[in-house]
Amino acid sequence: MARINPTRKTLVADARQAVATCVGLNVRQAARQITRVFDERLAESGLTLAQFGLLAHIAAAEDDTIGALAQRTGLEQSTLSRNLRLLESAGLVEIAIVERDLRRRLVWLTENGAHRLDKALPAWRATNKALAKVVGLEEAKALAARSALLLPGRA
User: Among the CATH numbers 3.40.1480.10, 3.40.50.1370, 3.30.1780.10, 1.10.10.10, which is that of 48-148?
Assistant: First the structure.
């Protein structure tokens, strides 16, 4: 019979405690479950929650630069650019370079993108209303705001 290394026994106990009590893991699990619900209910529109969110942010934008969009969505620019390229190849957004500053890019919805977003809104509204009964909007906003304070330079 093999002996359990005392260090290993402690590691297993510590890992079990981490899994059971980690705020980050629990929030990520909740986010995945909420995303799955939205994705299932938005499927008929052909959009995922992530795509819906980007299209909504673009449609609602006062500043149509990719940099401003990255800031509003909290996405890294490389992640945002990769997601925007997918939306662009699907014909849902257009991306253009500003003539006077080649590093600056603008993004806007195409007619097809606006149509797809409009088609997804009824399913989003119903799903959001149902989920808001489980996880209140104010609670979700407060969690996002408080957790942002943990980021460097935000305290």
Answer: 1.10.10.10
